[in-house]
Amino acid sequence: MVETILASFADAKVVILAERFDLEAMVACFRAGAQGYIVNALRSQPLMTALRLVSLGEKVMPSDLAESLGHRQFAGPSPITAETEIMNANISPRERDVLCCLMAGYPNKSIARQLDVCEATIKVHVKSILRKLKVSNRTQAAIWASHNGLSDVDVAVAAGAAAGQELAFAAMI
Q: What global pTM score does this model have?
């Protein structure tokens, strides 16, 4: 139905007014191009506000969505998947340390100090990481690492190990 409306009126902002909340139906509506999904039980003032938001370009979803999401189990990247992604990217252990420091937002000079190498070596590692991950910049590399399972603990371990601290310190975090 949403596709039909959008085919006829390309600039239309489609809002679905549903009798009851249905997560699968809502997802299907948004995938089809709807801008909003409102449950009929909404009072007039919140309904008008929701329609105003849609007219301003915002997406509107029912509060029932929060409750529905709270009851679902979401599986993040498993450690096996994370290790597999890192291995597939052919990242060396030292490059992994540098990547974790990139995730923490450290500049090359700070990474070099922490890893006790010269800044030029870090630049070589960063270029190698960017090439291996097929990304354009260090921010994209950090995002790739985050999405592929490197965690804050990995960052803490890399930073702690780089600073000569015991690995047990990172486990306490």
A: 0.46
